[in-house]
Design a protein that fits this description.
Helix content: 25-40%
Order of helices and strands: HHHHEEEEEHE
Number of domains: 2
Number of helices: 5
Bound molecules: zinc ion
Structural class: alpha+beta
Largest sheet: 4 strands, mixed
């Protein structure tokens, strides 16, 4: 894998475990030296094994990454065995539902010069699937269904 693959993996893990930037430049290089021979194709598998089996981020992360890389290699190089996402109509299988939340000021919806409501784009994690699990920690984003979003008075983006 490349440095940028490794960086992505670390970023996904810190996102998942709710940790801000836990790898500095020197440590990054040291860790990368131990992991750079791992094929990029294995990373999806490694990420899902870590979050499935470890309650906190492993202290010796390169060691754990290498262990899962070995398991992946021994299970005959078939990364497609791993479920990447499950089909979900609610969120278009992305795991997230985007909408426009009206901007409120002192309990009132803000309007622009033409009288249109002002709002900001926000996303919720889909309450009906777990496709979001690779991207955010459950606590990082509240769940919602399209129906709930409409009930809250937000406007769905597609
Ligand atoms: Zn969904």
């Amino acid at each position: 894998m490349t440095r940028s693959d490794f960086k992505n993996l670390l970023e996904q893990l810190s996102e998942y475990y709710g940790i801000k930037r836990f790898v500095n430049g020197i440590r990054f290089e040291m860790w990368f030296k131990f992991t750079e021979d791992i094929p990029q194709l294995a990373l999806e598998y490694i990420f899902s094994k870590i979050v499935e089996e470890k309650d906190t981020i492993p202290r010796n992360l390169p060691k754990v990454i290498n262990e899962y890389a070995r398991i992946w290699k021994n299970s005959n190089y078939k990364p497609l065995n791993i479920k990447i996402s499950t089909p979900c109509q609610e969120c278009g299988s992305t795991g997230f539902i985007w909408c426009i939340r009206p901007t409120m000021v002192e309990g009132e919806r803000m309007v622009d010069k033409t009288g249109r409501y002002l709002g900001e784009e926000v996303s919720f994690r889909c309450a009906l699937c777990e496709n979001w699990v690779r991207y955010v920690h459950p606590k990082a984003k509240p769940p919602a269904t399209r129906q709930q979003i409409l009930e809250w008075g937000y406007k769905l983006l597609k």
